Fold this protein.
Amino acid sequence: MYYTRKKLNHNIIKNKYFMRIVDRENPRKLYLQFADILKDAIERGELPVGSQLPTEDQLCRQQGVSKAVIRAALQDLAQHGYIRRIPGKGTFVQNPAQEQGVWLMTQITENILDFGIAWETEVVQKMLSIAPSELSEFFASETGHQVFKVMRLRRIQDAPEVLETAYVSHDLCPGLTLDDLRDSSMIDIIHDKYGIPLTRCADSIEMTTLEDREAELLKQEKNHPALLVDRILYTTNNRVAAFMRILSVSRDHRITFEAARTPGE
């Protein structure tokens, strides 16, 4: 048994610690070990559906690992439908068999996580705007073609590696500028906070060069080469929920984009 279960209050687990911890002598990656620990506890019913997991900091202290390891394990469980991460509220256990549809995520790949390297996110800009002319057809159904523009800079070891610019439906996510956008993916916010089902995505990938503002934020010279990913997120009735443009200048790390269909589909 992983922990002694105490009385639940409002579905929050009061005992924050599990008896079983990751084994550093085991060659299996730490985040995969911890994901297995949580998954096993969920499948056994020791972490009941609807209960809230401890915070990342509490899990870090209990397991003796970095926050990057904990985040990777939780991301893996969320991908497979075992947990749901709700911005501003916490992480909750759910029945993976009840989760249907397409789950999309963006994450730093495990070759970074092996060394416990954490990444930080800075929100450079968030504002109500009009969709750029080249994107206006995607947001034709929006009131006045209004969208939320969000620019976020991802840093690894204090070096800017990725610049993400997202244009999100104003009508579908009306309070986005008030949300804390530092720790959650835009996909999680759209799906979990606003309850918008994401039915499919379309990606295009190419090499490009940085313009003035992009180069300044990423601390590179103008016209420096970068990997460009354009992603369109669709909801029901083929409506565009968001358009995301991601620029990566990393030479040492890869960025992974994954779409997975969960059990039940």
Summary: The helical segments are 30-44, 56-63, 67-79, 110-113, 186-193, 212-218.
